[in-house]
Amino acid sequence: MIVADISQNYDGSAWAKNGPLMVTSNLIKLCKAKAMKTINDAKCHNIQLLPPNTFFSIYYPLWQLYFDTGSREIVKKRLNNSLIAHYWGKLSSKTKIKSRMPIHDLALEKCSLTAKYFK
To answer: Alpha 1,4-glycosyltransferase domain: which residues (predicted)?
Structure first.
């Protein structure tokens, strides 16, 4: 269902449309729900939706926190209950990663192999 939707409606210029919005609209159709909140309540196909902060604990307007040495504790605290660290690559791709940046701390902790390439 979602793969077919992506193949027919993919839009390379609209990030959220291809990810969260597409999944949301397909789940609403699949579960015959009026809103996302009702999907967890209805136990639709054993699907359990996780809150957005599980994946986006630092939302895109604040992406620079990952690169601000003064935000190390804030980032660490926000990522504490998150499954992933989405560092908004389209926005951050030209930012150089340096020691003592929160993203460097994250690389050291989770992927030390890549951290050795940062200065």
So the answer is: 3-115
